[in-house]
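From the thread on structure requests for the teaching lab: each student submitted one protein with a one-line request. Submission from student K.M.:

"Model Beta-glucuronidase from Cladosporium halotolerans, tokens only."
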Amino acid sequence: MKFQAAISLLSLIAPSLGDQTNNSHPLDGSHRDNRSLINLKPQRTSTRELVSLDGLWNFALAPDGNNTSTWTDPLPKGLECPVPASYNDIFVDRKIHDHVGWVLYQRDVIVPKGWSQERYLVRAEAATHKGRIYVNDRLLVEHVGGYTPFEADITDLVKAGEKFRLTIAVDNELTFQTIPPGQITVGEATGKKTQTYFHDFYNYAGLARSVWLYSVPRQHIQDVTIVTDVQNTAGLINYDVKVSNNTTGEISISVVDEDGTIVANATGAQGTVSIDSVNLWQPGAAYLYQFEVSIVESGETLDTYSIATGVRTVEIRGTQFLINGNPFYFTGFGAHEDTTVRGKGHDQAYMVHDFQLRQWMGANSFRTSHYPYAEEVMDFADRNGIVVIDETAAVGLNIGLTSGTVGEAPSTFSPERINNETREVHAQAIRELVHRDKNHASVVFWSIANEPASNEEGSREYFEPLAKLTRELDPSRPVAFVNVGAADYEKDLISDLFDITCINRYFGWYSQTGDLEEAEAALEAELQGWEQKFNRPIIMTEYGADTVAGLHSVFGLPWSEEFQVDMLDMYHRVFDRTPAMAGEHVWNFADFQTSVGVRRVDGNKKGVFTRDRKPKAAAHSLRKRWTEMGASK
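Reply posted by the TA:
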């Protein structure tokens, strides 16, 4: 299956995104409609300025009740919270750690005096899981969804050179109509709100990614869509540029190679540029061109924006996943944005170190389990030739899996739980994911959900329109979801809607616990069933065992480092006997925090590294396998 890259398809992509690129709702009728904004990641160019608002912000829990009129008052002194970071583990205060509801971040900001002829905006890269931006006392925008950016144009409210008070409110509540879903209960005796959720990682909250103040010219580039292809030795870049409504200048395109040489030019908002003797973006050997877009009028450059572009193709042929026409076998991990103290706060040092550890291991890929990662991570993957499976935050659409229900689990898809309203929120999450990450060469397919109840009645009605939407938004990449063990090849109701079989399996851990002989037989039967049902690639997107670092057993008993090695080795034997296997992602890269409860003691211990990135025995075992696999290619 060759995924389409013709320029005619770009007319499908942009209009599908245009009306609801960002789930941001401006709340002042006199203000510009932020839903019409198509958010290119801010960058500093000869025509644009960028000011980081990262650092210490004043912080407070929002007052209880529905009265929000005091939220924009100056916050009391005493608490300052770093941005980016989750707030939960920052303060030595159980009330803040366990808080359910809104919190307030606040700081003063000065718009640079030199921006008087520009438009300027405040942008939050993420607010988990709902965010509001206030300028002085005015609420400008509200955004739903914890892992994609939103912004507000403040040009008409604050003059260049003036100071304003910026307040960002963040709500961590999860309900059946959020992605991911959850449920809030209120204690009968205390009235205390408690958040439960159906995913196995901690519900860290706050401003975990950067906040920016940035400018664009009055005539500016709003969005760029790039789809690449290869014909013989030539690389093709199909493009579609969207500009502000008042733009009168001409669109000029230049493609610059890594030596700084212009290798192609074009004009116009849509078209195709060809690069002779193209250097392809390859797994493990990234090559990036700069795709430079400019608005030019009377010889003057009014705006310019550059996108790092890797030319590559993606194809599924039978049971093979092909990149640039060559079979690709995924090796790597699922992981979480998770570190001590910071929670999900993006940290450049951890990012670089984690990539170094992946490369040391011989891993060539990862899945953004179970939400879009910080865009800096995607840029870094582009530059380092690491392949990415890009996933929405739709984890937990399976009420019986982790709800702790005794007896028969309630149905997941129902008017009272996961319903049509949830699906609309899910659709918006897909729109925002595809819009944000569509130009990353590292992203080779979309995963629109992790472990939903795809064996339950109502799952097909829920997922069929979402699979269709994803293909309409981006016809150039395959679409997948990640299947849960209870929905095996006989019980699953939706896998035929997708292009790749991605499955999570824990034979030997959650079933056949400690009995690897029985587990091996069960795993092989499962993979054979999927192989016979669909003639397409199979990727094991999760497999692994909880392991306490330093715990050893001469018998290789569960929880020991020896058992983790033995269990992974068993899986690999089966993978190597399965022709349709196209990849293996161990769960997990590193130990991570989860909700407090009797099921987890200080988090999930399935990492092959500890939470502070010390290797367990399995890390060395995997390194040997993956580096030998890489050397044999």
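TA comment: The two ends are 23 Å apart (CA to CA). The first strand starts at residue 24 and ends at 26.
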